[in-house]
Amino acid sequence: MAISGHLLFYSTYFSHSIRCVAFILLCVSSFVLSAQRLPKGESLTIEDGLSFRDVTAIAQDNQGLMWFGTRQGLNRYDGYRFTRFGNDRQADQFFPGENIQVEGIQFIYDNILYLISDHRLYSIQRNDFSQHDLTKELAIKGSVLQLKFSPDGSIWMVCEDATQQYLYHGDHLTALKEIAHVPRIRREFVTSLAIDTSGDVWWSTISQGLRQYNKQGDMLHEIKVDSFLWYGTMMYYTPVHVDSRNRIIIFPKSRYQIWWYHPEEKRYDVIADSLSTVASSFEEDKQHNLWFSSNVELLRWSPERVLTDYTSVLNETLQFGKIQDIYEDQTNMLWIATDNGLIKFPNQKQLFKSRFDVPGDAWGNAMRGIFEDKQGRIFAYCETGNPGLYYADTPNGPFYRSFIPIVGNPKLSPLDGTNHFIPDLDENVVWTLTDKLVKIDLDKKHVISMTDFSGTADTYWHNPFLRLKSKSFLLGSTLERMIIYNPETGERTKFLKETNTQFSSVHTECLLENSDGSVWVGTNNEGLYLISGQGNIIRHLTTGSTPALSNNHILVVHLGADSVLWIGTFGGGLNKFDLNNNSIQSFTIKDGLANENVVGILSDQIGNIWASTYNGLSCYRIKEGTFQNFFEDDGLSNNEFNYSSFFKDRNGVLWFGGMNGLQYFNPEDILEQRPNPPLTFTGYLKYNRQRDSLDSRVLGSQEIEPVIISPYDSYFQFTWTLPNYFKSDKNRYYVWLEGLEDDWSYIGNTPIIRYHKLPEGNFTLHIKGADSKGNWSKKELEVPIHVNPFFFKTWWFILGCIFLVGGLVFAFTRYRLQRLLEMERMRTRIAGDLHDEVGSMLSGLAMQAEILELDQHKSDTSRLHRISEISRLTLSKMRDVVWSIDSRRDQVKDLLDRMREHAEEMLTPKEMTFQFELGELPLEKKLQVDVRQHLFLFFKEAITNIVKHSNATIVTIRFGQFGDHFELSIEDNGTPTISSAASSGFGLQNLEMRAKKIGAIFQINRVSGFHVMLSMKSL
Question: Residue 1016 CB: number of other CB atoms within 10 A?
Fold first, then answer.
């Protein structure tokens, strides 16, 4: 049947004509609103880490990570690094497939990636990268060609064998059933599937053309909308797509066009014509724009049915031969897969309106002062490019030149070198300053007066000036030159009362009058001065003052709400000076400011602070305390703004001028905070020096198991990403190791943190991030970290050591106790044996000697008496030894009893009286064997000496603790006999020897008798 068609839009390419039109309009002294600016693209190629240049498919998982299919495997991209999945040893993760089919990657569920590789269907678990060959596991017959998912989650799939192509449908992969089949013709692997809003499928094949099926297998529509001859075979295949409005989009193979097919009428409309090749790729973005491509062209069809050519964006970014897929991610970044890598560019609504910009130029018309007159007309001065003073009756209306510089000699222009304009709404005039103070009539558009100030102002300096409340002007290019000028009287008065030779080199940059008449003066190298209306310096703020500025070069000051003075610096960022509590807070790039050169500051209706910089426009949200930044991709004509070029009109619209025209906007229209996807961990690595091993893991989730760190791990590190791929290298990251650090630390633009040799304990690593525009991620990352101590510091080791030492002490004590018990038993046994056996024998010997003594002759009597005496002496000594080693006689009281007993035995027969003087004695204390033995033998020797060698009648024995020492002394009242001279020395030596053996002091005293004494600290 015949198919009718008509052209909706014919695309023309007019990028060069824009400049021509602008030039013509300039010649007639007016400007029109500039055309929409196209974004700038960025490329990703094998030089950036892509595994293979020929990219066939693009998808994004629910964590925000990008997945790219290539002719040689699969890639995952996190904005900084590629992770390669392949079947060779160099791959980061193993994947058996190789050739990923065009548009062959799908995410059905949150964590499962489905892809068609080498015409087989695979699934990959995103968290642990486990894989399944579903063609084998599900016993799929033939080759898998396409896989699509309905909005209700059901699945459509096309397979083919040698003779047929099959259409399957099911609620899940294990429940697929055949819906239809068609003959397979010469060309292999050719088919197209599209799901409409009802969940029905549109299936295009070579042999049967375009068909529509429902889930039950009923064919609802059939048409051969296009045909072409392929080597003698008629082909009816046409790639088909369906958008969210249920429009059927056809890519005919016989014509270089794009069609909108109307199935009810069986006709089509031509959307695009005269493509360079047949159309190939399709994508619908979140703004419901439709994106089409041929092999080398990229077009956008808006909901208003306006076709825009984006081919130049691609050509300026990357050389390629064929576009193979189009994909928009969660943050409105558009990705283009080509046979030579990837192209990406932001696909966002243009937030700002631009005037005087020159499309395609980085620097076009450089702007300076902006103001409005009595009627609300906006005036702006263009410094270079097309210089002049322009005005517009309305912001969206055309701008007209109101003052034209002198042609041929711009140095004679009264506006040459001017920066600042001060309007007088009562007279509807404007004042400006070069080396002359110029007054311009805004109604008649001519110069009223020019007053020379060449000694006060410099033509090519910034020359700030101020209209005071008194209607006088404050001006001067340096502090020394500052004067107050009264335009009514012409009087000029020096402003500063203080004189300083350095003031001549301190140039002024900005002026601001307070309600009390004092003036803030910003300088180029000496910070900020506050000077009273009478010219006295009230205070001086510098980098060395308290509070301190971040930089001494001040470009702009602005008084905001709540008595806060905002100070823009050259190189030091933005300073917030709270006049109530006398504190300054500095904001730099690490705090979210777009750039640290701030040239303009304005407040919006709700108190937010807008700061124009050398690289972007920043909005400081007072309520949240965060920055939101804007760049060319948001609609700015240029990222670099100019000094003195900012203004807030009577309607609350903010104006900023830069190196390529003006930007104007209503803050309420663009201050929509766009939260980013959550941060995602991408990798973990640690090195163990004990095993000399590196543990590296590829991650891909927001939550990971607690990390256990060995004391032998020299370092460990985490990598993560903020899945916003617009200027990823400008994303900002902050970390806080709870348990070791007290607050967040800014780590820059690289999402990696490494820790070396953390102390033992439990920690929690917190990570947060914001994109280049200041939009924060939805939530922060957290991971518990436990650092194990060295084994000798663990509780089980310490407890084990305690048990071991306790066991050894117990064993040693028990062993010693057993030995002591054994010694006591042995002593008792020896004492008993000596007493019983040897004692009885000696007693018997003595008795026999006595009996023989009675019976023998007188000549033997003395000998037998001697034998008897020796036996009894031996028995006495043996009893002493037995007593000394008997463990049953170890106490002090036993020693005392034995000493009394011995004194009784030795002294009483000699008619000597004795007495004991006892000190303090621990009677129950057990004495060591040697101590007890030496004390007793010392006592016995002394008593024996008295008995044998003294004629004493009284013996005094002192025994015990007397004061601070222990004493054992024996004293008699006699004198030594003559026979004792030869033997007394040996006895005294024995006494001294026994005293030394127990650590005692031996003393002798022969005054009034004989006195021997043993003393020591304690018993």
Answer: 15
**559 and 658 fall within a common domain:** yes
Tell me if 942 is assigned to some domain: yes
pLDDT single digits (tens) 224-281: 999 999 888 899 999 999 999 999 999 999 999 999 999 999 999 999 999 999 999 9
317/346 Cα distance (integer angstroms): 13
Burial class (CB in 10 A: 0-12, 13-18, 19+), 571: middle
Q: What is the pLDDT of residues 65-95, one digit of tens each?
A: 999 999 999 999 999 999 999 999 889 999 9
List the structure tokens of 749.
């633009």
Average pLDDT, the chain: 88
1015 plus 901 within the same structural domain: yes
| C-beta of residue 382 within 8 angstroms of C-beta of residue 395 | no
Q: How many domains does the chain have?
A: 4
Both tokens of 922, joined, read: 């621990």
* Rg of the chain, C-alpha, whole Å: 54
Which pLDDT does position 7 carry in this prediction?
A: 33
Distances in whole angstroms, Cα of residue 960 to Cα of each of 81, 252, 880, 921, 993 = 91, 127, 21, 5, 21
In this structure, the answer to whether residues 770 and 811 fall within a common structural domain is: no
Single-letter amino acid code for the residue at 733: Y
Distance CA 880, CA 831 (A): 10
CATH of the domain at 965: 3.30.565.10
Q: What does DSSP say about strands 399-403 and 421-424: parallel, antiparallel, or unpaired? A: unpaired
E strands in 38-86: 42-44, 55-60, 66-70, 73-77, 82-86
Determine if residue 999 is left, alpha or beta; phi over 0 gives left, psi from -120 to 50 gives alpha, anything else beta. Answer: left
Q: What is the pTM of this model?
A: 0.73
CB-based burial, 356-387: b 16+ in 10 Å, e otherwise: bbbbeeeebbbbbbbbbbeeebbbbbbbebbb
DSSP string, 231-260: TTEEE----EEE-TT--EEE--SSSS-EEE
Claim to verify: residue 824 and residue 724 sit in the same structural domain: no
Last residue of one domain, picked from the residues 639, 672, 705:
672
Sign of CA dihedral 166, 170, 173, 174: negative
Same domain, 880 and 980: no
> Which residues, 6+ apart, have CB-to-CB distance to 342 below 8 Å?
43, 44, 45, 50, 55, 58, 68, 335, 336
Same domain, 601 and 668: yes
Note whether 864 and 906 are same-domain residues.
Answer: no
What's the mean pLDDT in 425-454? 92
Ordered strands of the 248-250 beta sheet: 240-242, 248-250, 258-262, 267-272
Question: Token pair for residue 733?
Answer: 């990251």
